[in-house]
Specification:
- The complex is a heterodimer of chains A (216) and B (217).
- In chain A, helix 3 runs parallel beside helix 4.
- Chain A has five helices and 16 strands.
- In chain A, the strands form three sheets. In chain A, strands 1, 2, 3, 4, 5, 8, 12, 13, 14, 15 and 16 form an eleven-stranded mixed sheet that branches. Chain A has a three-stranded mixed sheet with strand order 7-6-11, with no helix packed on it.
- Chain A has one domain: Glutaconate Coenzyme A-transferase (3-Layer(aba) Sandwich), CATH 3.40.1080.
- With 216 residues, chain A is α/β, with parallel strands linked by helices.
- With 217 residues, chain B is of the alpha/beta class.
- Chain B has six helices and eleven strands.
- In chain B, strands 1, 2, 3, 4, 8, 9, 10 and 11 form an eight-stranded mixed sheet that branches.
- In chain B, strand 1, helix 2 and strand 2 form a beta-alpha-beta unit.
- Classes of the chains: A alpha/beta (216), B alpha/beta (217).
- Chains A and B meet through helix 3 and helix 4 of A and helix 5 and helix 6 of B.
Chain lengths: 216, 217
């Protein structure tokens, strides 16, 4: 299993029956593929609908129906379309149970940086700032390091998307929870040692006595 | 009185230096025909208010590539490398606004509000230069209304009175922008008889719409 699938599978386990969920573009989008058949998760798309379904079959794309990354999608029975103000009523107003986003950096205080690298890459924040502020649970799904350099830091150095809003970080190496005391390593991936994950993380990791293996 | 006019008529209304709102999300729900004609006409120094600058060959991106935009107020430019290039070269001013804040600032202008209070952007560069207001011990940013001279919108079905129905995800910023500009022009995928859109399904009332043009002409 490649690391992206591993991360997406583990994030999917965080979702509960009936949850309204917004998935970011890229690896977070893959989470939808691994949600258990036993539960129903309602996907919100910030370009204006709730009840997003899978990608259409080739030849059945609808030019008026794409996700927030401009990829053709479908809607499920019971879906609803709305304008951008209503979309962010749902997002900012606390009606989204969980959002899954990628990150450039995340830190021990739950700060998130994922919208720009000054002088290099300035795509804009899109809906990310509202999502991170408004969602009840903010899950970061990302590779643990960027070309070997830690992305989980003592303090973010890039411009923030939001301060202190991240709840959980899932990487190919483990699952970390943001707490008042710092980052707690809840689960560690098979074949990874505590020393290895510590070495790949700039922030201090609190290792609990009941550290579990990350099963996906 | 029918609001349906020839494309040429509305193109005359868009002048150099104007503030123009354009509907759409990554070019879905964007009036492509009007944009193509504005590119041909070459109107310049526009300030564009839009969700994103789409793609170099699609939607608002075409105005950017043709260097007709002086300033853009938007939430995302990542899908159009030319926007980033012009920004870095100092050829175009880019104001990045969180998407939900952008929607509410437009809505505020249309609704006659003096601004909105949002927690989005607190603790980030977005808060720089803005007033913070404490309500029930929680900090909010005061974000000001955004108005335009002209709104260029796209409707799936539009009747002669300007009532608009939007198909699927084409709605996005269109209904908000319809309320927040001095002149509102809707490009219709299909123009129908007044009454053909059931009143229950009208999303934008014709009272907001000044002109209707047919797409593809």
């Amino acid at each position: 299993m490649d690391y992206r699938e591993k991360i997406a599978r583990r994030v999917a386990m965080e979702l509960e029956d009936g949850d309204i969920v917004n998935l970011g573009i890229g690896m977070p989008t893959m989470v939808a593929n691994y949600v258990s058949d036993d539960i129903e998760v309602i996907l919100q798309s910030e370009n204006g609908f709730i009840g997003m379904g899978t990608a259409p079959k080739a030849g059945e794309e609808d030019k008026d129906l794409v996700n927030a990354g401009a990829m053709p999608v479908t809607v499920k029975k019971g879906a609803c379309f709305f304008d951008s103000a209503t979309s962010f009523v749902i997002i900012r107003g606390g009606h989204v149970d969980a959002t899954v986003l990628g990150a450039l950096q995340v830190d021990a205080k739950g700060n998130l940086a994922n919208w720009m690298i000054p002088g290099k890459m300035v795509p804009g924040m899109g809906g990310a700032m509202d999502l991170v502020v408004g969602a009840k649970k903010v899950i970061i799904a990302m590779e643990h390091t960027a070309k070997g350099r830690p992305k989980i830091l003592k303090e973010c150095t890039l411009p923030l998307t939001a301060a202190g809003e991240v709840d959980l970080i899932v990487t190919e190496m483990g699952v970390m929870e943001v707490t008042d005391k710092g980052l707690v390593l809840k689960e560690i991936a098979e074949g990874v040692t505590v020393d290895e994950i510590k070495a790949a993380t700039e922030a201090d990791l609190i290792i609990p006595s009941d550290l579990k293996q990350m099963n996906v | 009185m029918s609001k349906v006019v020839e494309l040429e008529r509305v193109l005359e209304l868009v002048k150099d230096g104007m503030v123009v709102m354009i509907g759409g999300f990554l070019a879905v729900g964007t009036p492509e025909t009007i944009i193509d004609k504005l590119v041909e006409k070459g109107v310049k120094d526009l300030t564009i208010i839009c969700n994103d600058t789409a793609f170099p060959d699609k939607g608002i991106g075409k105005l950017v590539v043709n260097k007709q935009v002086k300033r853009v107020i938007t939430s995302h430019i990542g899908t159009n490398p030319e926007t980033g290039r012009q920004m870095n070269a100092g050829e175009m001013e880019v104001d990045l606004v969180p998407q939900g804040t952008l929607a509410e600032r437009i809505r505020a202008a249309g609704a006659g509000l003096g601004g909105i209070l949002t927690p989005t952007g607190i603790g980030t560069v977005v808060e720089e230069g803005k007033e913070k207001i404490l309500v029930n011990n929680k900090e909010y940013l005061l974000e000001l209304p955004l108005k335009a001279d002209i709104a260029l919108l796209r409707g799936s079905k539009v009747d002669a009175k300007g009532n608009v129905w939007y198909n699927n995800a084409t709605r996005n910023f269109n209904p908000l922008m319809a309320t927040a500009a001095d002149v509102v022009i809707v490009e219709a995928e299909e123009i129908v008889e007044t009454g053909d859109i059931d009143a229950n399904n009208v999303v934008t009332s014709g009272i907001f719409v000044d002109y209707i043009v047919k797409e593809g002409k």
